[in-house]
Amino acid sequence: MNHDELLANSATDDGLRLSDERTSSRPGTNPYADLKRIVKENGLLDRQPVYFGVKIALTLCLLAAGLALLPILGSSWLQLANAIYLAAVLVQISFLAHDFGHRQFSFHTPWKNTWATLVLGNLLLGISRQWWIDKHNQHHAHPNQMDVDPDVDIPLLAFEEEQAFEKRGLARFVVATFAAAVTEHAP
Known about the structure:
The protein is mostly helical. Helix content is 65%, strand content 0%. It has 9 helices and no strands. It has helices at residues 3-8, 11-14, 31-41, 49-73, 78-101, 110-125, 129-141, 161-166, 169-185. The two termini are 13 Å apart.
């Protein structure tokens, strides 16, 4: 659902509370800022320490299990399954690092969030914390704007028709296949 559809739908359909003041109808407003305001008003950005505590513990246990399997499985074909499993666990770790970067966990001091992102990002994922912060700030400053948002330049995805036509080779095939599948299942 895009921003305009979210504002147009009634609050009773999905439980979201929309204020009577629809700021998106004013010229010159930022649709992202409007959407963020709605999300905040509905408590979707509130800190959830229990959720994060459980997710951290569970994710670290899953990581330990996958790492423990590395020497046990040796050079068998089961290592491929373990690699896929560890990839999924590392994606969860990257989500945690992202949330720590946004200070969603309720550490009482900012330096603990900084250390958490350093440990999760640099040590476990191999991503520079400062590189991520710079890139992510650029994304939040210009969300989904083709020429300035670094997160919309993904080789196997196209966010606009023009971007799809610029793809070549395998990337063009993947984008065309995905677009056909989406179009087929569209209401």
